[in-house]
Structure formats: C-alpha cells, structure tokens
C-alpha cells in the first residue's frame, strides 16, 4: 500500500511539473505574439506564414550543405 502511494505521488509530481512547464510556455508564447501584434503590427497569420515558409526552405535544403 505504501509503495503504491509513493509511486502515485511520484507520478503526480512529474505530471504537475509537466503541466506547469506547459502553461508557462503557452503564456510566454502568447505574450510574445501579443507584443509583436501591438508593437509591430505582426499578426499571428504572418508568424505562421513565416514558420511555414522556413520549414519548406529547410526541408528543401540538401543535407550536405
């Protein structure tokens, strides 16, 4: 019984840290997007377009170069 509770507690702590990290990352990303939008007029669609364009360019680049 004690070992089961210990394992459950360890799993809970790991999941809690994962959720906290995920939320911090999401809030940071949202703050950056809002800052770019209000500070420079860059929309989320512009960001998505640039990321997609970068991914396409990166996938077309030969591995040896």
Brief characterization of the structure:
By secondary structure, the protein is mainly α. It has helices at residues 2-40, 44-60. It contains two helices and no strands.
Description of the molecule:
By secondary structure, this protein is mostly helical. 86% of the residues lie in helices and 0% in strands. The chain is built from two helices and no strands. It is elongated, with a radius of gyration of 20 Å.
Q: What proportion of the residues is helical, as a percent range?
A: over 70%
Q: For the CA atoms, what is the radius of gyration?
A: 20 Å
Unreliable spans are none
Shape: elongated
- Main sheet overview: none
Blueprint of the fold:
Elements: H1 2-40, H2 44-60
